[in-house]
Design a protein that fits this description.
about 190 residues, alpha/beta, Rossmann fold, 8-stranded mixed beta sheet, two-stranded antiparallel sheet, 12 strands, about 30% helix, globular
């Protein structure tokens, strides 16, 4: 049975982060559901840099679903829209309670996870502009990607490939990470584990 991941997107999301995670997870054979967080139930969003992204479904249809991973992209105002979504809040809290993987990058660790107390017992990182707002157990400002148990955080667009490959490793193992990363001509980067 293949692994599953939910990637929520909203108006103003950082396109590099969203698309990189979706692409790399799909290269690894993960069944990815891209869910639009829109007040009008539209499946299309415009990213922070005016790129149109089409979702597979609305977040409203995901509430009773179950995923091996929920990964939240950043971007402003995208992360703010995601943080205010009650259905995403419900899904993330359930993910944490069930001990399943949850992840965020850029502004999302602070604005989506930290604001909800979902980093209270975790070491985490995020975009340097938002690190002071993380509300995490401990801040790791040096590492591009931080893994603390079932929580994975990363710093921003420039760390999106490292983040996505770490998500592959956490879901599918290091061999699958190498299978996906090698043809992409990537070098190994430092990840901090707690």
């Amino acid at each position: 049975m293949s692994k599953t991941a939910l990637i929520p997107i909203a108006e103003g999301c950082e396109e590099i982060e969203a698309i990189t995670v979706i692409d790399v997870l799909r290269r690894a054979g993960v069944e990815v559901s891209v869910a639009a967080v829109n007040s009008d139930s539209s499946l299309s969003i415009t990213g922070a840099h005016s790129i149109q992204i089409s979702a597979d479904c609305s977040i409203d249809t995901c509430v009773n679903g179950s995923w091996d991973l929920i990964a939240v992209p950043g971007g402003i105002p995208g992360a703010e829209h995601l943080a205010s979504c009650q259905n995403l809040d419900t899904l993330l809290r359930s993910q944490v309670q069930d001990g399943k993987l949850y992840a965020a990058i850029c502004a999302a660790p602070a604005l989506v996870l930290g604001s909800k107390g979902l980093l209270a017992n975790k070491t985490a990182t995020g975009h340097p502009m938002f690190q002071q707002n993380l509300n995490a157990k401990e801040l790791n400002s040096e590492s591009r990607v931080v893994v603390d148990g079932n929580c994975i955080t990363s710093q921003g667009p420039g760390t999106a490939l490292d983040f996505a490959l770490e998500l592959v490793e956490q879901l599918c193992g290091v061999v699958k990470r190498e299978e996906v990363g090698s043809p992409m001509v990537l070098t190994t980067s430092a990840t901090a584990y707690y």
